[in-house]
Amino acid sequence: MIIAVTGLLLSCGNNTKKESEEKASVEEFSEIAKNVVDSHNAKNSLDYKGEYKGKVPTASGEGMIVSITLSDSSFVKKVEYVGKKGGKFEEKGKYTWNAEGNTVILDGIKDAPNKYFVGENTLTQLDMDGNKITGANADMYILKK
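Above: the chain's sequence. Below: its structure in token form.
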């Protein structure tokens, strides 16, 4: 009986030691992870070049079909208003990236949204201030490759 009690006490003591070692390892890893700089972003990690297309809502009417093609540093943006004659427009120009490398800015476009968040095979139109559009129709502002 004494041997069984001694074995039980020793085995419990080892679990406490393992738990404290595991806790220390997790805490050490967390501290190391805080100091790691991750330089990955959409600009250098995604295959973002290509054509993106989608139907975007408008204030009046049935919406518009938007197509944006991104090349090395240039873009072509085509807009077609649904159900309107003569409602096709095309703009070309250069684009730049924001400091974080996750949003392209279509240079030269002033009276329409010109910032698009770059995701995996998507461009998400941002509002005029560069913020994500929220609400029930938020998904309608995502252009897909």
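Residues 94 and 118 are 16 Å apart (CA to CA).
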